[in-house]
Amino acid sequence: MRYKPIAYQSALGEDERLQMDYPKPRPWQEEERYYSFSRYLKERFPFKVHKIALHAGFTCPNRDGYKGTGGCTYCANESFSPNARGEVQSIREQVKRGKEYLKRRYGAEKFIVYFQAFSNTYADIKTLSTRYNEALEDEDVIGLSIGTRPDCVPDEVLELLNSYKNNYHLWIEYGLQSIHDRTLRRINRCHTYKDFEEAVQRTKALGINVCAHVILGLPEEDWADTMATAEALAKLGIDGVKLHHLYIARSTPMAEEYSKGLVKTMEAEEYVTLAADFLERILPETTIQRLVGDTHGDALISPIWPFTKAQIFQSITGELCRRNSYQGKKWRQDRKNPNAKILITN
Ligand code: SF4
């Protein structure tokens, strides 16, 4: 993988750029330096909110032959979605157990139910509404977040989801990974960037929050490719981002490629630099729902980093501090149009 050294020069002076970006600095710009989802939730709710990840028993059109077979080459859903392992419990039971655990561990008070495993809009409307409603019936559930593919949201599904918007804090999370169709083909996503763009536009037109999942370090992507993904998300006005590093999980097609030397993974230091570059190029309003990938169990082949997730978070904050930078630093307000931002490219 090729990485360009960071060469950040602007036609604007540092003081001028800071003033133009934010007349009043936001606390996170001087603290963690990115707009974390926990901060976003604290700003909105007077109680502690946590997400409960669910496996609702759906499958995926990229596995059952409708869109493709074999799935995305990196996908071992059970490695990143703990609830996808073993026998699927009832949704009611998963919510109950999730609540108990999160209350005990983090003092959580209210919950967003997160339909995480596989493609959670891939069923008929009646099945979807039955499963969503079962998760929402608990009085402590105040939000709904649906993870799915961008080519799996017909209008009737968006309308169903929109019907929850007035009573619940609502998100749709689309797996994108990269804006480059050649990369999407390489990892067998079986959808295009255009599919994603259209899904985002249709979803945002209804006023539903959209989160995009992105993988940094995908095969045959260089630094410029990754930054182009960040900039495209900013231009789409995406509301949330989940960043993952590329990792190789057992029993995946990518594990096979990795064993032949056709795919490489990053060192932690590389990821920290790349994630900081990415954060500078998305908008400051975009909340960061995940900053690094997470594997469960013994599925992980590579990379094996000698750091905890918390240490990676601290390193990304440290890197942004070192640059005197923060999320969205590359964007500034357009003086001529208060609704527009300009990307500082030089
Ligand atoms: S769309 Fe999601 S669940 Fe389906 S194969 Fe790809 S990563 Fe796995």
Question: How does this model look, in words?
Answer:
This protein has helices at residues 14-21, 27-30, 37-44, 77-80, 91-106, 125-136, 155-162, 181-186, 193-205, 223-235, 253-259, 268-281, 309-322; strands at residues 49-54, 110-115, 141-148, 169-177, 209-216, 240-245, 248-249, 287-290, 300-302, 331-333, 341-343. By secondary structure, the chain is of the alpha/beta class. The protein has a single domain (14-341), classed as pyruvate-formate lyase- activating enzyme (Alpha-Beta Horseshoe). The strands form three sheets. Strands 1-2-3-4-5-6-8 form a seven-stranded parallel β-sheet, sandwiched between helices. The chain has a two-stranded antiparallel sheet with strand order 7-9. Helix 10 (223-235) runs parallel beside helix 12 and helix 12 crosses helix 13 (309-322). Iron/sulfur cluster is lined by residues 60, 62-63, 71-72, 75, 77, 118-119, 149, 175.
Fold blueprint:
Layout (H helix, E strand, L loop, with lengths): L13 H8 L5 H4 L6 H8 L4 E6 L22 H4 L10 H16 L3 E6 L9 H12 L4 E8 L6 H8 L6 E9 L3 H6 L6 H13 L3 E8 L6 H13 L4 E6 L2 E2 L3 H7 L8 H14 L5 E4 L9 E3 L6 H14 L8 E3 L7 E3 L3
Parallel strand pairs: 1-2, 2-3, 3-4, 4-5, 5-6, 6-8
Antiparallel strand pairs: 7-9, 10-11
Helix pairs in contact: 10-12, 12-13
Iron/sulfur cluster (SF4) binds next to loops.
